[in-house]
Write a structure and sequence with these properties.
- The structure is a homodimer.
- By secondary structure, chain A is an alpha+beta fold.
- Helices cover about 55% and strands about 5% of the residues of chain A.
- The first copy, chain A, has a four-stranded mixed β-sheet with strand order 2-1-3-4, covered by helices on one side.
- In chain A, α1 links the parallel β1 and β2.
- In chain A, α6 packs across α8.
- The longest helix of chain A has 27 residues.
- Chain A starts with a strand and ends in a 23-residue tail after the last helix.
- At the A-B interface, β4, α3, α4 and α5 of A face β4, α3, α4 and α5 of B.
Chain lengths: ~230, ~230
């Protein structure tokens, strides 16, 4: 089956968690909005008033299905592309982990946008400094600690491992000083990151133009003042 | 099967979305942490170092399964307790809606805690006012509008309808002025709320002592200053 991924074409964002899974699996997919007139196609779906649509990108077309919400898409794709077992207990467990990553990602986003997603960073810089401090001191270690523990039991690579790779990549970009200090405490997480990065199809993807660079429009953003103090 | 729900005993919080489903279905369940020594049992699971556990309450024990993340629990329970169809397309659609409700709920929480969940409200009151203003003006109407549209197509009551009932209840408690002004624009949502409230088992639950009252420890909190301006 050829999958159609719909997501903003100029950022990694939430779509990247799906791109990583599709790329690692060598799945047949189109990153629709990065093609000519693809943004129009995406907006047309979102604004289709004749029937209810997903709330926001990313969403995935798989045959007749249109699936929204990143973790839901990975839950669907996992067993189909060899990145999750087929049994329900294992799928529920992985999905729970992915939903916890989703919660973590919201907190990363809110470090630079604690007041409103519709406002510029500069309009909430003071609040962003306070929130980032709280995130770096309390929340970030809590999530890192949790997944370090989880990874002790997960031997086989799944879409959750790919997502954890992405979290480490993004956090290194956004908070290099903090991550430099914290990483030695979480060897299993870093080992997983490295192991994922070496997978042949993923390594090829990361070196290709299909991998969009981190930038200040995405979820992970580097503002030095949010990584200090 | 007797389900065991684990959640904080003094708030509605995220656990309430599961309580509503179990109660409406007339399911056999125990609200463990509200029983004698139940908090100890819950903490013991969370702190069990011998194997990985859910990140946080709520979680549900169903036979040998221990399932975390509210939306994941409802995804599991839905078809088993008659609150979701069994087919995968319908389940994926409902789950996506539930995950959008989860996103919405985080934004509600962050109106009073925009800087850090570990800080008191009073320590972030100024930021909370700014975030609440943005939420009431931009985000709240966006979510209400989305679900108003969705409900036009959903005839049969599912766990998503119960969750939308809870969102309306909570928002009325937290933002009475704002909701008074906005509600007339979303008749389908209010009709759904009322229809859910009248379901016999749910009405009995809501009138019972099992229904914890809204309070200033939960996710929905009423601070008049966050509902004005």
């Amino acid at each position: 089956m050829r999958y159609e991924l719909y997501y903003w074409p100029s950022i990694q964002g939430r779509g990247e968690f799906i791109r990583l899974a599709l790329e690692d699996a060598g799945a047949d997919y189109v990153d629709v909005a990065r093609r000519s007139r693809g943004m129009e196609a995406m907006i047309k779906i979102l604004e289709n008033k004749s029937r209810a649509q997903p709330f926001a990108p990313p969403f995935l077309r798989a045959g007749r299905l249109l699936i929204g919400q990143t973790a839901n898409i990975l839950h669907y794709l996992g067993p189909r592309i060899g990145l999750a077992p087929r049994g329900e207990p294992a799928r529920l467990w992985l999905h729970q982990l992915q939903l916890t990553i989703a919660d973590w990602l919201v907190e990363v986003h809110d470090t630079h946008h604690p007041i409103g997603a519709g406002l510029y960073y500069e309009q909430q810089k003071k609040e962003a400094k306070r929130r980032s401090l709280d995130f770096r001191r309390h929340r970030l270690p809590k999530f890192l600690h949790y997944f370090e523990r989880v990874l002790r039991e997960e031997k086989r690579i799944t879409y959750v491992h790919l997502s954890l790779f992405q979290m480490v990549e993004g956090l290194r970009y956004a908070f290099p000083r903090t991550m430099h200090r914290l990483e030695p405490k979480y060897p299993k997480l870093i080992e997983t990151h490295d192991r994922v990065a070496e997978r042949p199809r993923l390594a090829a993807y990361l070196a290709s133009k299909r991998r969009i660079a981190f930038n200040r429009e995405g979820i992970f953003r580097h503002y030095p003042e949010l990584d200090a103090g």
